[in-house]
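Database export, one record per block. Field names are fixed; values are copied verbatim from the stored entry.
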Amino acid sequence: MTLDEFKVYQMAMEIGEQVWAIVIKWDYFSKDTIGKQFVRAIDSVAANLSEGLGRYHYNEAKHFSYYSRGSLFESKTWLAKAKNRNLIDETTYSDMNKTLETIGVKLNNYINTIGKTTNK
């Protein structure tokens, strides 16, 4: 599989760009506190998936996928903090939260398939 074929990676890349576009518009204090953490966490979702895939061993892929899932959950926290502190509106929060939930399901499905082969 290549990164171009890796749907959960592509989704993680897309939401990373969406978060960047939002955070870059915040004032200095908001960017320096929540913004940097949010961008780092969301970018780590895709970065860890690509690193695991690039290691070419299923144990490494699974290991880095767990890191990716941790970053996904961290991103949910920063998203909630951004909403609670009125840095994003309810619609943006809801849309991004749905996307993160979808990525989470796909990521868990991917993790569950790593290292499994079918014997026919």
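Remark 1: The domain at 3-111 is CATH 1.20.1440.60 (de novo design (two linked rop proteins)).
Remark 2: The chain is about 80% helix and 0% strand.
End of record.
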